[in-house]
Amino acid sequence: MSPRSPSVNEQLRRRSRERILQATVELVSTRGYESTTLGDIAERAGSARGLISYYFPGKRQLLQSAVHRLMHLTLEEALEREPRTEDGRERLARAIDAILGLAVARPTLMRTHMAGILQAEGFVRCEEQQRLAFLLRDTVERYGSEDVDTDYPLLRALLMGAVVAVLLPGAPMPMARLRAELFHRYGLEWERGAPPDGGPPGGTPVVGPPLGRPVDGAPGQSSKSSK
User: Which of 31, 41, 68, 157 could form a disulfide with 129 if both were Cys (CB 3.0 to 4.6 A apart)?
Assistant: First the structure.
């Protein structure tokens, strides 16, 4: 039997890594972080326990990569779903709904993820996070940002804050209210994206600034004052 080519080996490694990440998402979502061991993940993924250590320095880093992959795939699906669009405002609305939707659909997983980021390990810059960052940066750029390097981190921070607010034990904020605030900030009509059932909070339409005129501080607004 002839040896496998480097490209085949790379494909096998990629698939093995993806199975490990998917297994992590599934187990932590149902069992929680503390009750999920690396051995459990290896068994679910059909991989050797040592292979996890080869790819990831620790359990917390594995979890972050797994959640970033889930966020990337969820965001990608939302942005590219039919009817496909190049409208930057619609794509931003879809991005906001995709991330908030994950907090509602997978509360245990996302709460554990946010807690890990705030601990000593901090924010893990892995390839999954880079793919997620690329999609969010592209969304901000298509929306009309004049300073993507400033506006992308701001959007990321606002989304992280909204996820924390949805998941806050004992005092969660309604997702619809947080969505309305984000949509107003970016001048997005409530009907864009994937609006939740029941309409906007208070029963009145959320009307943002006119097209091309975001609210103060939102991407797309020039920092130059009019003369």
Answer: 68
